[in-house]
């Protein structure tokens, strides 16, 4: 795997990123540490976390993932310098009062959250600090339509950038990024940064997979022209694109109860739990089998090889899953197979958008 440069920054990352939101909920600390070590051994030195992890989010596990990673750094002196570490400040509450007081995300909240993340991570600096979701109202996490009547924004994008700039100046953050963003948001963050001499976003972390290619409905052009990289999350669509739900469905008696989408109602209520999402996933999974591939290999190879994707974030529960995801690197997707994928999308569109 060759290093990838994020946006117009000088930050280089591995083309596969280890997502860690299962650590502290479905993955205990001992197993998580083994996975972190194995990922680094295999060249995956880009790791992503967030203050609100683990997931599903709840007060009891708030900050648990960062704590587990911090303990790994403590137990492995000298390894921190080998890792590109990304974390995120949570946006407005979304029903999580344990994240912070109030429903918004102020400039002071950004600074306070970063300081708390640094303590849990037991590090002096976060290489990529991202806004987990926009402070303003946007259609995200399965909501399709923008509604100006729902706007509750209190902190301007410039104020957010200035808070992030202060963290960069203080040496606590090296680069900044966004997540779950829209074309408007990316444009504004870049425009204001360039106009006022503030840090420029290097990346946007958004969902991107076979059943959600909404990135290609405008964000791909926006970010290509502005020099902002995509970090693709949920490449396996919360397991739908592994084929393990093809026969049982996600709530059937034979569905794997240990998996996130089967075991947690809060996840099923989102875009991945829609009946249309499973219908589409089954089509792509069968396409993979028709071409002699596992469903997971096709889904991952799709992200690994698309020009739109800088780095693909993989999330795992077991060491076996980690190895499978990494072994999919190098799998080729032919032009004919891409045309078949596009033909399915033409009919079924993006049901997990």
UniProtKB/TrEMBL annotation:
The keyword Oxidoreductase applies. Residues 15-344 form the NADP-dependent oxidoreductase domain. The keyword tRNA-binding does not apply. Pfam families: Aldo_ket_red. It comes from the Bacteria. The lineage of its organism: Bacteria, Pseudomonadati, Pseudomonadota, Betaproteobacteria, Burkholderiales. Keywords: Oxidoreductase. SUPFAM superfamilies: NAD(P)-linked oxidoreductase. This is Aryl-alcohol dehydrogenase-like predicted oxidoreductase.
